[in-house]
Design a protein that fits this description.
Number of strands: 8
Number of helices: 16
Structural class: alpha/beta
Strand order of the largest sheet: 2-1-3-4
Shape: flat
Distance between the termini: 40 Å
Radius of gyration: 25 Å
Helix content: 40-55%
Length: 444
């Protein structure tokens, strides 16, 4: 992770930030805000040392006390791990650090706290809690400053499919008309590298890269800005290796199974209460069962809390009945609450324990829908290369969709997830899912 690089909120590491040559005090401060070492060192000073000075004074810190030493070491480790996780999350599109300081540092400080308790180590509750609070404040303020200070100017080399570049609002595009000197202040240059350029433009692109300004292929930048992999062919140039990381697949399955077993045991009375309410509100079983297309194209029975009445419209096809429309009249009152909060998905822990699903992955579709999509959309079946999930990248970025054109967009999100299959992206989806549960984004 280059120390001087500013990671864009859209996920692009943009090399040299505009204004690196600015030698004024404002320019120096601006560059400092984006340096990783400054952010981490400032976090240690603000969130570890400042609470000590406030508690004991600048010269009276009793470092010989084991509880104090344990607290300093533990807080420093928690802050460093939190900073590493925090920066990794910012590599993904549509991710601003302002929203994630509280949960990310709660995760790392909580892990250190559990370690203290497990090893029966003495520590200062006041200093450890103050360190967590100050870490959240420090990195939240930093995130706000980075959002306000950064400006991205990207030059566009004419030719090919550069006209399809999105307009996310965080980038100022500048069309390059002649292959001369690189305009000052550009963060990067984008070109369709499959185009047959003139020798002059080829020299310009090569010199730009040699000078240290990043040069992106247009499809790479589209993926970075949108969080979607738009597919023309299932080629290694588009997706990398077609099979995701096999080791992480196995590790993830074990983690999914253990987490599902723990959560199911913890929430069993709560689940039973929701099942009773469903039975009282409308006729029919509390659980809804449906055949879904799953891992490697195998059909399995998915379990959800029933959120609709059992009546069926005989005039509708199986595909139409499998779709949930906006303001669907079949949805019950309690079912609408379950859908908005995503609590209707909790019985799928049974599917996780059976090895059919994961907590995170592309959502499994009903068999009639999946068969229809496979006929309408090229390469749709490739999404079955990983286990389907209770939540996924498409769900937190796009919400629920059913129309073919929107399903194609969802497929692009699914392919982005498969291409970037990693614990970091899974962690980001978990955090976004929690926000989705609180806001009801994308529910029907």
């Amino acid at each position: 992770m280059p120390d001087r690089a500013d990671t864009m909120g859209t996920g692009t590491t943009a090399g040299t930030e505009a204004g690196w040559q600015d030698r004024t005090l404002a320019g120096l401060l601006r560059r400092a805000v984006f340096r990783n070492r400054v952010q981490l060192l400032g976090g240690v000073l603000f969130a570890v040392l400042l609470p000590l000075v406030f508690r004991f004074g600048p010269v009276a810190v009793p470092l010989t006390q084991s509880a104090l030493t344990n607290t300093i070491v533990g807080a420093t480790i928690a802050l460093t791990l939190g900073f590493f996780f925090y920066r990794r999350l910012l590599d993904y599109p549509g991710t601003e650090g302002i929203s994630y300081a509280v949960p990310v540092f709660a995760l790392t400080y909580g892990a250190i706290l559990i370690l203290f308790l497990f090893m029966r180590l003495d520590y200062s509750r006041y200093l450890f809690g103050a360190s967590y609070a100050m870490a959240v404040i420090w990195f939240t303020v930093l995130s706000i400053a980075m959002v306000r200070l950064r400006t991205y100017r990207i030059g566009i080399v004419p030719g090919g499919s550069v006209g399809t570049l999105p307009d996310p609002g965080s980038v100022r595009w500048e069309n390059l008309t002649q292959p001369g000197a690189l305009p000052s202040g550009l963060n990067a240059v984008v070109a369709d590298l499959r185009t047959d350029f003139s020798p002059a433009w080829e020299r310009f692109i090569a010199e730009t890269a040699i000078a240290g300004t990043p040069v992106f292929h247009v499809k790479q930048l589209q993926e970075t800005l949108t969080g979607r992999v738009e597919i023309e062919h299932l080629s290694e140039n588009t997706l990398g290796a077609l099979n995701p990381n096999d080791i992480y697949l196995k590790i993830k399955q074990i983690g999914d199974w253990l987490a599902a077993l723990f959560v199911l045991a913890l929430t069993l009375p709560f689940l039973a209460t929701m099942a009773a309410i469903i039975r009282l509100e409308s006729k029919g079983p509390a659980l809804f069962r449906q055949a879904r297309m799953g891992y490697r194209g195998n059909i399995f029975t998915l379990y959800k809390f029933r959120t609709m009445t059992m009546e069926r419209d005989g005039a509708q096809s199986a595909r139409e009945q499998a779709m949930t429309q906006d303001d669907d009249i079949r949805v019950t009152r309690f079912g609408r609450f379950l859908r908005r909060t995503r609590l209707d998905e909790l019985p799928q822990m049974i599917n996780i324990l059976r090895g059919e699903m994961s907590w995170i992955g592309p959502r499994p579709e009903a068999v009639p829908l999946s068969e229809w999509y496979e006929k309408e959309l090229p390469f749709y079946r490739y999404r079955h290369i990983v286990r389907p999930g209770i939540s996924g990248w498409a769900q937190v970025m796009q919400g629920h969709v059913a129309a073919p054109d929107l399903v194609l967009e969802k497929l692009h999100y699914d392919f982005y997830y498969i291409k970037n299959f990693s614990p970091w992206l899974d962690l980001l989806i978990v955090l976004k899912t929690i926000r989705t549960m609180l806001t009801g984004f994308g529910a029907r």
